[in-house]
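writing this on my phone so excuse typos. first protein, seq and then structure
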Amino acid sequence: MTLGTAVVGGVLFVVITGIVASMVRDKKAGKSLQCGGDCSKCRGGCH
């Protein structure tokens, strides 16, 4: 493995880890990408 490959892999790992951590924090805070059955949070997107 070359140094460039290791650097790119490391950067991707950090970015993906940050995205997952952000999603976990949002989920714990009650935010969601989907409605989750609570239409007050959907802003009119529920059926």
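second protein below, same order as before
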Amino acid sequence: MWYVYILRSQSHPAEEYTGTSEDLRQRLADHNAGRSPHTAKYQPWQLLWYCAFPAKMPALAFERYLKSHSGRAFAKKRLMPESRVRNSDSATIG
């Protein structure tokens, strides 16, 4: 499985990051350990949302969409409507 995920910085709540990974648990640990140059300065990260895909290419295509202007608007409205209000609960990896 491939995962598309959205993270929010706990230290800078306005910062969010969208990515893909085949191992979501390890990737979240990498982000929180500072092993990604794009997210190191905003750690720690909280998992807000994720979705599993059976293959890599659809996951990459959906990640690319979520990083677009319309994709960010879609995510705010449909995937994380509660993210407009500060929420201390995080998604759990099941």
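The longest strand covers residues 45-53. thats all i got for now
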